[in-house]
Design a protein that fits this description.
By secondary structure, this protein is of the alpha/beta class. It is 42% helix and 16% strand. It has seven helices and seven strands, in the order E-H-E-E-H-E-H-E-H-E-H-H-H-E. The chain is globular. InterPro entries: KR_dom (IPR057326), NAD(P)-bd_dom_sf (IPR036291), Sc_DH/Rdtase_CS (IPR020904), SDR_fam (IPR002347).
Length: 241
């Protein structure tokens, strides 16, 4: 096993699960934080249940992990969409997703940061979204995902002197449960959406984890504060979901 320990939020399925398993293949220890039971098990992986919408739950799990492990990588992948047109959107949507997408990341990093600074090494990553550029029905989601980008750039500036990089992956439409919660699986709407993406297809989980693996790599220490859109070119123009 390598000398790296990665904490991945939302690691029970989808992008988080794929990234966790690929890091395990590289010898990392992996700790997944998710609300539900994982859809996978593997040697070297630990699954922790916590509700990242609940600040107290996040604080408790962060303190516990920090006390037991020297965390080197934090990948904040967990997310919810909560789509609504403006007329149906509520302020609570914004505050809820701000806690999930931003507040929980802050609490986790604050717990792991002392060890990262002591080591002089760390990798912090966010799973944002092409929707940070705007998308219909995404008032709270777009706002909080755009917030990830701003927060990551601030953290990158503060942490660069300590050997800690902070970067963002911003996927476009990727075939995961979150996507199929909005677009019916194997529907005509899904096929039409794929045609409107410049590369002519929807994203796969591996497309996103490939980007995370680049940012995870200890050799990539000269890249920080960046947002990589993994979106098939859909961030170049307008894409209506």
């Amino acid at each position: 096993m390598s000398n790296y320990t990665a904490v991945i939020t939302g690691g029970s399925k989808g992008i988080g699960a794929d990234l966790a398993q690929r890091l395990l293949e590289r010898g990392y220890r992996v700790i997944s934080i998710a609300r539900g039971k994982p859809e996978w098990e593997a040697e070297g992986a630990q699954h922790v249940e916590a509700d990242l919408l609940d600040p107290a739950s996040v604080a408790a799990v962060a303190a516990d992990i920090a006390a037991r492990y020297d965390v080197t990588h934090l990948v904040h992948n967990a997310g919810l969409i909560w789509p609504n047109l403006i007329e149906e959107a509520k302020p609570e949507d914004i505050s809820g997703l701000a806690q999930l997408h931003l507040g929980s990341a802050l609490t986790l990093l604050q717990a792991f940061l002392p060890n990262m600074k002591k080591r002089g090494f760390g990798r912090v990553m966010f799973n944002a979204s092409r929707a940070a550029l705007g998308a219909p029905t995404r008032t709270a989601y777009s706002a909080s995902k755009a917030g990830m980008i701003g927060m990551a750039r601030t953290w990158a500036l503060e942490l660069a002197p300590h050997g800690i990089t902070v970067n963002v992956v911003a996927p476009g439409p990727v075939q995961t449960d979150n996507f199929w919660g909005i677009i019916p699986k194997e529907s005509e709407r899904e096929a039409e959406l794929a045609k409107r993406i410049p590369v002519g297809r929807l994203g796969q989980v591996e497309d996103v984890t490939n980007a995370f693996l680049f940012f995870c790599d200890p050799a990539n220490s000269f890249v920080t504060g960046q947002t990589l859109f993994v979106c098939g070119g859909s961030s170049i123009g307008t894409l209506t979901l």
